[in-house]
Structures are given as structure tokens and as C-alpha cells.
Design brief:
With 198 residues, the chain is of the alpha+beta class. The protein has 6 helices and 11 strands.
């Protein structure tokens, strides 16, 4: 570790971990930011931002900054707010061919909760014991197809007929208790959401 009060891992926290995760865990990262700012206050916050690490159990606070930790905080909060850095990077003409050459493919397992809200879709219960309801508000566009996928993207079930505003689906009775994905396919677009079977 760069900073810690003893000589082993003992619960020391580095603010950059939570704060630079803002695009991926917006609620949790914002909760951490508020805690660091309002609760820890000047013990953790200096002229150049948050100090590098602290351990509240041992009342220990670093008084230094590491650029390698400060940089990701700024960049990732900006990416969360506007996507500016990611978008500008992806505009470089060499990026897409480079990503293809090294084997990157579109991640269909990513979830888009904002899209689900915009399309006014509800999926419940979740976690489920094997039956799920997928309902669409009157303003929502109905998908052409609904897929149930394993976490390694193997199809478990496909629904592509008689999709209505209110749907009840019974998953196979021998389905394993684990994480799955519900993928809603539209013309040229898709929305994916996590589903837990317990």
C-alpha cells in the first residue's frame, strides 16, 4: 500500500477507489464523497483535494497527495457527469480499429437503468424464484424479443411472440440459482438488466 499506519492491510481506505468509481457506482460513490466531505472533513480534505488515505479505526490520516490517485478522481467524475473524456478518446480514428484488432467486442451484459426508466419498464420480482413479470407503461415501446441469458451470455429462454404491456414468464423449473440477464431487443437497440434467481 502507498500509505497505511502499520505494516499490513488493516482497513485503511483510499478515497480514490470510491470516487473514481463514480460512473459505475454513482449512488455508493456519491455517498462516499458526502461522507468524506461532511463527516471526515478537514482531516481528509486539504488544499489539493482529498488526502491519499485514512484509517478511522486508528485515527490515522495521510497528509500527502498522490497524482496517480488525484487524476482518476477528476477524470472519472467528469466522465460520470458528461462522458467528455471517454467520448473524445473514442473520436480518435485509430481507436475503433485498434479495439477490434485486440479482440474487444460490444458488452451486451451491461445494464442501462436510465434507459429502462425512460422506456418505463418494470421487471419484478427481482430476486425471483423462477417466475417474473415484465410490464411496459403505455408510453413504452414494446420490444421485438425478450431473452433470458446466463452471465456467460448463453440463452436460457427466448420470448418473441405475444409480447404485450403486461407479461408473466415462468422460467424453466431446473434453472440454477444465480445471476442472469434479461435482454430486451428493439429495432437496432437493446436494454439489458440483471436478474437474480434464488
Amino acid at each position: 500500500m502507498a500509505h497505511e499506519p502499520g505494516n499490513r492491510d488493516n482497513g485503511t481506505i483510499t478515497p480514490t477507489a470510491a470516487l473514481s468509481s463514480m460512473p459505475y457506482t454513482p449512488k455508493e460513490s456519491m455517498d462516499a464523497l458526502k461522507y468524506f466531505y461532511f463527516v471526515e472533513g478537514e482531516k481528509l480534505l486539504g488544499f489539493n483535494g482529498f488526502y491519499d488515505a485514512f484509517n478511522g479505526n486508528q485515527n490515522w490520516y495521510a497528509d500527502s497527495y498522490l497524482a496517480i490517485d488525484q487524476g482518476p478522481i477528476l477524470c472519472m467524475i467528469q466522465n460520470h457527469r458528461t462522458g467528455m473524456l471517454w467520448n473524445n478518446f473514442m473520436k480518435n480514428p485509430e481507436i475503433q480499429p485498434a479495439l477490434s484488432k485486440i479482440g474487444f467486442v460490444k458488452d451486451v451484459s451491461s445494464t442501462h437503468d436510465k434507459e429502462l426508466e425512460n422506456k418505463q419498464i418494470s421487471i419484478f420480482p427481482n430476486p425471483s424464484r423462477g417466475s417474473i413479470n415484465i410490464n411496459f407503461n403505455n408510453k413504452a415501446i414494446l420490444p421485438n424479443e425478450i431473452l433470458i441469458l446466463t452471465s456467460d451470455l448463453k440463452q436460457i429462454k427466448v420470448y418473441n411472440t405475444n409480447i404485450t404491456r403486461e407479461n408473466s414468464f415462468q422460467l424453466p423449473t431446473n434453472i440454477d440459482k444465480r445471476l442472469y440477464f434479461i435482454q430486451l431487443n428493439y429495432d437496432g437497440n437493446q436494454v439489458t438488466r440483471k436478474l437474480i434467481i434464488e
